[in-house]
Write a structure and sequence with these properties.
about 350 residues, seven-stranded mixed β-sheet
Length: about 350
């Protein structure tokens, strides 16, 4: 039987990302999108039973047959899961289960979310175990942490719950996430733990705070929600009205789940500002180990001459530079991310890197 080619929307929050990973494994295909029908893609009763087992294991939510029939897409099923885990969702998101080997942990950029990481994980190969952790403060009842040091400590606590005993720690992060990966690696190494890859995806050693008072709003609007709206119009709205307007338009555009609410969006905007403040106060300390800087080849956006290793040899014992195509934003987008994934895999495990020319 020939099944229709699905869409490939990877997920708009941690629940959708993890459900997509489950579907990909159960259905044996890597091109599952959040709006594709489980049964149309080849799902059947036996796989449906396996799906309920996986959902119970991941989210502690019991699904019924009626649930699966009424919610046959990832997006619809995610709404049921979110309702059942409202008080239990944590920061950890399993992007890709993989089949063994050293897991890779991705730490969040300034948005606090982990939505940019699934394409990177897929580009590394479906056998690569890949976890990501989102910032504290995005979910109801959570209070954001206010320093890079506190955030790193919290991430270590979270990651220990899934990290194999005695295994090497492999960390990476895009932009601000690279600073979090660095600080986390530094703390683990100081405690005598084995640290392998510390991947810094176009991360500078210092981040200058933006003078733009609307930076957080612009970043969320254009990079997160992918909406083109007038900033002056948005600025003129009171916070509640602004949040409702953004949610309405993002849901219409498909960049937010249908059950997203204005309170959650306000937390996302606040998260940008909390993380920017934490960055501004962070002092980068020495690290007795190696960092790998994934350096973009298109540097036209940098507005000046930066060191080849973005300054990391000043604090790390050794800084390795790996060139990847694109600029700071396009390096994680289709057309460029495929090479980034291969380069990451090569640095993590040279023996298992796919022999594909760039």
């Amino acid at each position: 039987m020939t099944h229709p080619k699905p869409t490939t929307d990877p997920g708009r929050d941690g629940v959708e990302l993890q459900l997509t990973d489950v579907w990909r494994r159960l259905l044996g295909r890597d091109d599952v999108g959040i709006h594709d029908d489980f049964f149309t893609l080849g799902g059947h009763s036996l796989l449906a039973i396996k799906l309920t087992v996986e959902v119970r294991r991941l989210f502690q939510v019991d699904l019924t047959a009626a649930d699966l029939l009424a919610a046959a897409t990832v997006a619809e099923l995610a709404e049921i899961v979110r309702r059942g885990t409202a008080d239990r969702q944590g920061q950890l998101v399993r992007i890709q289960q993989g089949t063994g080997g050293s897991p890779l942990y991705a730490l969040p950029p300034v948005s606090g979310t982990v939505l940019l990481y699934p394409p990177i994980a897929r580009a590394m190969g479906l056998d690569q175990p890949f976890w990501a952790v989102q910032s504290l403060g995005l979910l109801p009842g959570e209070e954001p942490l206010t320093s890079i040091e506190e955030i790193s400590e919290h991430f270590i606590e979270q990651l220990r719950t899934v990290h194999p005993e005695g295994a090497e720690w492999n960390l990476m992060g895009y932009s601000m996430g690279g600073l979090l990966a660095y600080e986390t690696a530094r703390r683990l190494k100081a405690r005598g733990e084995r640290v392998g890859l510390v991947g810094l995806l176009d991360t500078r050693i210092t981040v200058e705070p933006s003078a733009d008072p609307d930076f957080a709003l612009r970043a969320l609007l254009w990079r997160g929600l992918k909406l083109e709206l007038d900033i002056d119009w948005l600025r003129g709205l009171d916070p509640d009205t602004r949040a409702r307007a953004l949610v309405e338009r993002a849901v219409e555009a498909g960049t937010m789940p249908a059950d997203f609410d204005a309170d959650r969006l306000r937390r996302m905007i606040d998260m940008y500002q909390f993380n920017l403040d934490a960055l501004a106060a962070y002092e980068t300390r020495p690290y007795d180990g190696t960092v790998t800087v994934f350096r973009v080849t298109d540097r036209s956006m940098e507005g000046g001459t930066l060191p080849e290793d973005l300054g990391w040899s000043e604090v790390a014992e050794r800084a390795v530079v790996v060139d990847v195509p694109g600029d700071h934003f396009t390096m994680v987008e289709p057309g460029q991310v495929e090479v980034l994934g291969r380069r990451l895999r090569e640095q993590l495990d040279p023996a298992s890197a796919p022999a594909v020319a760039s």
